[in-house]
Specification:
single chain; globular; 5-stranded antiparallel β-sheet; two-stranded antiparallel ribbon; 5 helices; alpha+beta; about 35% strand
Amino acid sequence: MKRNGFAWMLVCVFALMCVGLVSAKGVERSLQSTVTLESITSRSVDELMSNPSEVAKSIVVDYYNEIIKQGDTYGVPLNSFEIHSINSQSLDEIKVTVTLTFSEWKWPPIETSVIKVGDRYQVRKDICAYDYATSGRVSCSQDARMVDGNVSFSY
């Protein structure tokens, strides 16, 4: 049974879109899309400056709620999320610690970043992999590439 769980996890590990698990095909589609989930859930610089922690929280809540609404469009559906902390000491990168719950498991807390892009703040798209079989850790990276139909990570 463990081997079967490990095989399932390998299939599911492909990618997490800014931390929503997606298939390799979904990553490719999202990289080609001009209207991204990140931009849809973004807020203006002026709005964020009024209350950085609360607005960053709102951006992250909207982002993950949109992923939940999409269901299994991009792979294993995200069922819920919980925000644990928000660090807005640096407005270059506001860090939000989040726990994601998928249909069959709950991930350890991960760090989601809210960054400035042009005149807006948005969730930074990271691709995350859950090492279910060995360490139980989640590793996230901005450097994910499509290679022969598979997602390749750089840490």
